[in-house]
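The methods section describes the discrete structure representation at length, but only in general terms. Since the whole study asks how a given chain folds, the encoding of that fold should be made plain. An entry of this sort, consisting of the sequence and the corresponding backbone structure tokens, reads as follows:

. . .
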Amino acid sequence: MSSASASKASEPSKPPTRLRLWPQSLFGRLIAATVLAVLIAQAVGLVLIAEERESFVLQSSVREWSRRITETVQMLAPLGPAERATAVAQLAAPRGAPPSLPPPPADDPPRPAHNLLDPRHPFVRVPLLTDFERTLREHVQTALGTGYEVTVGRTLDASRPAIALPVPFYEARELAARRDTAQYYDVGVRFPDGGTELFRITRMPGGAPLPRNLRINLALLLAILVIALYVTARSITRPLSALARAADRVGREVRPETLPEAGARELRDAARAFNTMQDRMRRYLDSRSRVLAAMSHDLKTPLTRLRLQVETLEDPELQSRIVKELTEMELMVREALALFRGLDDGEPAVPVDVNELLSGIAQQFSEMGAAVSVRGRAHEPFTGKAQALKRCLTNLISNAINFGTRATVLVEDGAELVIRVRDEGPGIPEADLERVFEPFYRLEHSRNRDSGGTGLGLTIARDIAQAHGGTLILANLPQGGLEAALRLPRRH
């Protein structure tokens, strides 16, 4: 594996592309998906209702106009020419300004010019009729019988006298608001005695609009569904969020709080299983702590006796060699106990000034004659365990100085706090970049007894990084040297 590939492997993978407008939380997706489904269902329902209502209104209007035309014709049929003319004049008296006819729609089929049952012209039957015209003609013809001739067509001359039929009550409000879109039709009736009369109908193209109460009721229904869904979704997602937070605290806190076992049965089972796992881990840590306490006492006591016995030796060279071995053994014991103790240190998480922490560590190494430089700054404090972070960074900088002559610390702050510790040493073979994190593992060519170290420094540093929810990765630099990248996620 090359250094470039190792560097690429150390970089976090990019998250998959997501829809910007689509919520990412389970709660948001439940709300959005259900509201969208309800809106689509309501839209389809409104379309179906509108179609059925238009058909119903059309049939009702046709029956109403047919009834009025039939009653009027039956009233006029027995009258003589003079009396009929007088009655028609009264019925056809203008009740307002004649309507201005809108232009015919572009998809209207071409029609021959005609005047319905004009006595001055021969009778012309118009072959092209719309569904409305055909339905109205059939109803009127059926009501009057075969003795009458009925024709229906669009009004071509609004000034021509005609008996105006009233607009149905369910279309009156729509007509008053949108008179410019109204359509006008003339119904011509030829009496058995040869006389003709013209009836004028005003019709809205879309029929009667949907009632306002229907739209209000649908909006109210949608609001009720959203409220009910909000309550239900929160009852589902809140325990899941609590479970996620509790799982995130595992490894950060030694004794996290017990998760409430509430919600649906599956959620209660998950919370109960999680609490059981936490209890087992807590009992394991308690047992390990007692064992470590006993080990600490049992190991330190014989080492102390050995050191006292070594001081009685008369051979200075042998005494120095044994003291050196005992010192290394004590160091290994302390490091091993610190590693095994792990998170059970009782240190609370507090806001840590990373800039001040790094400056203090660099100052300490500088006083010992080591070269440490810090570049970059953290924008704000990081919430973590101050002593643990200090130990982690001290181990990394100490390794860089011991095996790379000098340490350069680079600080990058953003969604996560990244601290890179670089040295100018020979680096580490690619095959050993992960093995050096194993306890007591030391590279033969650089990590030996004379150079110091027990092989636990990197192990402890990675454990501290993982305890803060972060990562610690080693990578060889292209220009030479080793980089230890500590990534600590910020949680606001």
About this structure: Confidence is low (pLDDT under 50) at residues 1-17, 110-115, 122-127, 445-452. Residues 91 and 333 are 117 Å apart (CA to CA).
